[in-house]
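Narrative of activities, Objective 1.

The group set out to show that a structural description can be obtained from nothing but a protein's sequence at a throughput compatible with the screening campaign. Below is one input-output pair from the validation batch, recorded exactly as produced.
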Amino acid sequence: MRDDQLPAPQPHACSVLSRELGEPLAGTGAVARAWLLVEQPGPWGRVAATESRLDPELGAELEGRTAGTAVRLALIRRVEDHHDSDPPHRRWFAASTHPKRTWLATGVVTYPTDLLKIDFAALDAGDRRAVAELEHEFVHAPLLGVCTNGKRDACCATVGRQVAVGVEALDAASGSGSGQAFGSGSGSGPVGAYPAVWEITHLGGHRFAPTAVVLPSGYSYGRLDTAAAGRVLAEAREGRMAVHGCRGRSTWPRAGQVAELAVREALDETAEAALDVVSVTQTAGGAAATGDPEPAWTAVVEHEDGRAYEVSVTGSFASVPRPESCGKADGTPLELRADAVDKIR
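Output recorded for this entry:
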């Protein structure tokens, strides 16, 4: 089925209901200080690492090595590359998202088991030596991963695919649709050009589809269309982030994501590296079923110029039940909002 023949989401689809109910995007991004992306064309199952053409034992081992870290593993494929055969070489990307340790490395492997040479603890810490045992390059061009895994959610297979195809074509037409390498960490030559736009397996928050993540910054986005996704990628190439449609930077916990975005809006600040969430303290909260109060946090966000802000964040459970993913029972997801932004320095 061609992408222009994909059905539109049904009125009861999770992404349609979330949009209609005005569910806030801030604070819904996946939480990950670092990412490992592995190219795997062909179909993906719900748990893609073990339900794809990738050796399931290797997928399980890679997933296992992320345990105890804040590294997120995801599979990627080139847009419209859905064939079942294994490629002779697989591209991989490793990204550290912290604003003071932001980097993106890439390489290709003939044998996917070589990816087990990555030091996951070092990757979690933002240490570039994490990929030292692999042939690699550190690259300056960001990539955009658009979630298209229909086995996770139907919305990702419909609206997500349309955005992936659209923004890839838009980027190719602009003449800037490939990554470039600089500086080898392994003594090897450049690993060649690669697409800037990829399909990716799972970013969480299906109800915000179409969703995407920018790496290496880790900013995630929801409710995109092709034009908006193109702007997100263009801004990232200039070292900026797009506040509109942003779900948060994966570096921070949910309340920290909300706090950072609130400070950005207050200051009209878009430079990716400008802000650092230095602390997030929960001041109230618990599960609604136990009668505990709904949660609240205080976060401190520092600007690179020395200014600092205290942000009050509160959470409330959605008043109108809705499915958090297509096919799931209705629930009342926790919605986070910034109540106040106060300058403390």
